[in-house]
Amino acid sequence: MSACPHDPAARLALLRAQWGGRGDLWVFGYASLIWRPEFEAAEHRPALVRGWHRAFRMRSQINRGTPQQPGLVFALMAGGACRGFVYRMRPETADAELQRLWDREMVGGGIYDPRFLPCETAQGTVPALAFTLSRRSEHYTGRLCDEEVLAILRHARGRYGTTLQYLAETAAALRDRGVHDREIERLMRLAACAGLVGRGGDQPASARRNGQRGASRSSSGSTATSTPASSTSTPTAG
Questions:
Q1: What domains appear along the chain, each with residue ranges and CATH number?
Q2: pTM for this predicted structure
Q3: Coiled-coil intervals in this record (predicted)?
Q4: pLDDT band for position 92 (50/70/90)?
Q5: What are the beta bridge partners of residue 130?
Q6: Distances from the Cα of 144 to the Cαs of 33, 94, 157, 172, in angstroms?
Q7: How far is CA 92 from CA 22, 65, 86, 98, 146, in A?
Q8: CB-CB contact of 41 with 88 (8 Å)
């Protein structure tokens, strides 16, 4: 979506026009939307998106870091394929939930390029809203060496907690749902070897306590988490 790149209201209006407001509204989750959706879904399904992949290469200066110590979050980037989950909004609340989701993901005018992507599910392909990132974005980090990633995992903290927490939560959410992401698993092994998490992927008690303090400080700026109401199929490995 390239129209009105610096006007989030115009971008949202364009997206609403593409959706039409009449049919089902689906959202594709590939990272925090899986474990912290903050919306009530009528249904969710495992899904595969071709032509895009999950990458730990988006700079975060608010949610998981600061301008002085940027953190990292996942983005959906062109190339490859990505397994995640699609969520169908409840028709009666879809428009309001879209606004809430937009306010969360497009904070500060927006870094992502939101677009509808065809998501393959066991029940057929559905068009779902996905938040993608361009390699031309100033928030795209490019490839970072492991030492740089470890430094970020050790120190970066934003209003929703640390980058380390974010990575560990995403890894656990995917693992628990039977989705295997080799790069995330490699990053978790890297963090474990550095003593940042336990061998099973759990954070040390001190890191959990620090994270809980950070989460409590940010709770006034976030909404309550809701879990999907139902699932129509069993997650598949990928």
A1: 8-217 (3.10.490.10)
A2: 0.78
A3: none
A4: confident
A5: 115
A6: 24, 38, 18, 23
A7: 10, 35, 18, 12, 46
A8: yes
The one-letter amino acid at 139: H
Q: Which residues contact 207 (CB under 8 A, 6 or more apart)?
A: 162, 164, 165, 196, 197
pLDDT tens for residues 33-73? 999 987 888 999 999 999 999 999 999 999 999 999 999 99
**Which of 179, 188, 181 has its CA nearest to residue 146?**
188
Contact 36, 139 (CB under 8 A): no
Amino acid at site 113: D
Q: Where are the beta strands (DSSP E) in 154-230?
A: 157-158, 161-162
- State the CB neighbour count (10 A cutoff) for residue 166: 28
How far is the C-alpha of 65 from the C-alpha of 91, rounded, in Å? 35
Name the catalytic one among 105, 120, 169, 183. Answer: 105
Question: Is 147 annotated as catalytic?
Answer: no
CA 187 to centroid of chain Cα atoms: 16
